[in-house]
Amino acid sequence: MTWLVTGGAGYIGAHVVRAFLADGMDVVVIDDLSSGKAEFLPAGVPFVQANLLDGAAVREALDGVSGVVHLAGFKYAGVSVDRPLHTYTQNVTAMVSLLEAMAEKEVRNIVFSSSAGVYGTPEDEVVTEQTQPDPQSPYGESKLVGEWLLRDQAKAVELRHTSLRYFNVVGSGDPSVYDASPYNLFPIVCDLLAQGKTPQIYGTDHPTPDGTSVKDYVHVADLARAHVAAARALEAGKPLERVYNLGSGTGTSVRQIMDAARRVTGIDFTPSEGPRRPGDPSRVVAAGDLAARDLEWKNSYTVDDMFATAWEAWPKG
Prior knowledge:
Residues 3-247 form the NAD-dependent epimerase/dehydratase domain. This protein has 10 helices and 14 strands. The protein has helices spanning 11-22, 55-61, 77-82, 84-105, 138-156, 185-194, 220-235, 254-265, 289-295, 303-313, and strands at 2-6, 26-31, 47-49, 67-70, 109-115, 160-166, 168-170, 200-202, 214-215, 217-219, 243-246, 252-253, 272-274, 283-284.
């Protein structure tokens, strides 16, 4: 059983690759290295360096595979507002190219990397799969369109699929793989502390217990294992829901993360405080009950564990 992992040289993708290998499943990776890093790939993993818009390269990568984990895409929600056409090209047009190649090669299984971005700023105290999507960026919209593409293609051809809506993915399951995003909280804090600078909290007047925003953080190793479970279920023909939230059900505030960073690193700092950023929700927390039922999903790391693994992997030289 061999699966193609698109975007497999990225932070999340490299962890998914490792989870598949640890479970005894072979993988092939396709990645254009626009944000991924070749050094994140384990030695010996077959690798095709190409964008999914290159249909011939995609068809080549699909030779002999039984399913696809589709993670490749442009993942910066804020930047997508300024680059909507690029976002749709990389997240929608490229997915059409992938699905066309899958249909031609008769590959019938796909696990799609969707996003909590499809929900926008939900009013629900805890987001469930029944919460109405309301994306508020081209990125979130493109992920929702990706889910629609799977739904509609499955009506036209035999296609078993499920979409995993991620919340905030953090930490590291391998010290050689780290989150290099310039927009995510954990790498921002790690980078500032490694440089001897002080992290900042944006917004201390949220209607939350400590005044800072509360979001759902899940460890990347837990997330990767969910992909393996979904892939195995699809390959076995087991029924799966169309979408699953991968969230903790509780949430962690920005101040709690700062406190964890202080404990884990031993660096005594007091974060500076600034005004809220426009559009930053006060609370986004998701229930992971369906994923727990069908994918044996659980959030098995504490906030200290999450930050400790992120800090260990962060390049400090």
